[in-house]
Amino acid sequence: MGVSSQAQLPEAPQDTLVRLRARQAAHPIWDSRLLQACRAGHLTKADFYYLFGQYDHYSRNFTRCLAGLMANCESDLFRARLSENLWEEGGGAAPETRHAAIFRRFLVDALEIEPETIVYADSTRYFVQSYLSHCLQADGAAGAAFLSLGTEGIIARLYGDFVAGLTQAGIPEADLTFFRLHMASDDAHAETIEQLMVSYADAPGWSETCMLAMNRALDLRHGFFDALYETLQHRRVAQVFDRIHARQSLAADLPADAPLSHRLSEHGQPMYQNTNERLNIQFSVERVPFAAEVIDPRIVRIPAGKYNENHRHAHETVFYIVQGTGQVIIDDRTIPVQAGDIAFVPRWATHQSQNTGAGEMVILALTDFGLTGRAAIGDAFHTPRHQATEPSPPEPVQGEPPSR
Fold it and tell me: Rounded distance, CA 348 to CA 221, Å?
């Protein structure tokens, strides 16, 4: 049986564009850790200092990418239209208003960066060089797909995420001119380059060429964003590591009145407390007011017959039972404890402390929250305190403390 002629018809260019845009909108870049952190407001001004300092290398070289596409374009009409894009990117008759210069003013005014002092990371140089190489070497269709759907066509959404993060980090609207300008103008630039891309629609394998080129642009930027995010994480703990390696004591920098001891009878800095009669929860947590960088000592107080919440967190914890008797449930293990015992709660283990005695249970919890909190971006290391199962009331303990 022969194949119908309808089945052999190539996909219409407009149908290809719909498919390409759907793939663009679903690309993993939008779920990258960097953009998620921007949208959630987890990045600080110091984070953006590094992020956009590195982005400067891309900004400085973007017109070279456009020029590469223009050089590989066979149509003098489209070269003329691309020259309009270049003219606008370059500031027209006022080079001081070129987009790269506006971006550097943003660096100076908003982030207090001296552009000429920026040291670009190897991953940044790789990203920019790979971007430029593709634009210089690709044929017209691949270059146009790379710079339209893969680059200019994502700017409104991408810079919208950047603006959300910058605004939440306290950067004033007056300093966001660069981003607002591109969010308003780059759709028109993308349309021009997209029309160039469609002009090659009769070429064999056109739709596959465009898909590969668009994905290449998005993949390169995604890899760049991942490298930036990982560096941001390292930068947050770098100062601690530097002092450790330099054998620097923190004692010399502590205020003269900084506490170096704490009595259990004195309450520390209140952190939180919770009461839930239905779940038999009642407890309070206070921080021991030491100026520690890495460890974070806390006092947990649980009344007789009560629990704290069943929860988990990114930091690991050592419990020292100061007073009282009870049990610590760690995942599926139940550990009987009494005054003088020590229990270890691994990172991310679900755990709960239960007071089964007749008096208050007091726990000294030593955590590495100081280090974990620095290393994690935003509140990604916080998890909702939750009750995993409906508890049974604790049985009163009379006489002997729980066995070991």
Answer: 32
Query: Can you give the pTM of this predicted structure?
Result: 0.77
Name the strand (E) or helix (H) holding 389: none
Q: CA 225, CA 124: separation in Å to the nearest integer? A: 9
Query: For 356, what's the count of Cα atoms within 13 Å in the CB-facing half-sphere?
Result: 25
Distances in Å between the Cα of 52 and the Cα atoms of 83, 106, 112 are 27, 9, 11
Calpha distance 182→252 (Å, rounded): 49
Residues in contact with 25: Cβ distance below 8 Å, sequence separation at least 6, in sequence order: none
* Range name among 90-94, 126-130, 141-145 with the lowest pLDDT average: 90-94
CATH topology classification for 12-245: Heme Oxygenase; Chain A (1.20.910)
Cβ contact 19:73 at 8 Å: no
Q: In angstroms, rounded to a whole number, what is the distance separating the alpha carbons of residues 141 and 210?
A: 7
Q: Does domain 269-375 have CATH number 2.60.120.10?
A: yes
Q: Alpha-carbon distance 127 to 131, whole Å?
A: 6
β-sheet bridge partners, residue 269: 287
Q: How many Cα atoms within 13 Å fall on the side-chain side of residue 172?
A: 4
Take residue 230 and report the two structure tokens written for it: 């990982």
Alpha-carbon span 142 to 309, nearest angstrom: 56
Return the closest-CA partner of residue 353 out of 396, 314, 398, 301: 301
Following CA atoms 148, 105, 35, 233 in sequence, which dihedral angle do they give, to the nearest 10 degrees?
A: 130
Establish how many alpha carbons lie within 13 A of residue 245's alpha carbon, considering only the half-sphere containing its beta carbon: 6
| pLDDT tens digits for range 153-196 | 999 999 999 999 999 999 999 999 999 988 887 677 788 899 99
Model confidence at 304: pLDDT above 80: yes
Rounded Cα distance between 210 and 13, Å, is: 11
The per-residue pLDDT for 97 is: 82
366-398 tens-digit pLDDT = 999 888 887 777 654 454 444 444 444 444 434
If we measure between CA atoms, which residue out of 144, 145, 135 comes closest to residue 61?
135
Question: Domain coordinates of the chain in residue numbers?
Answer: 12-245, 269-375
Tokens of 212: 């590969």
The burial of 2, by beta-carbon neighbours within 10 Å (0-12 exposed, 13-18 middle, 19 or more buried), is given as exposed
Structure tokens at 373: 């909190």
Report the distance separating Cα 246 and Cα 10, nearest Å. Answer: 66
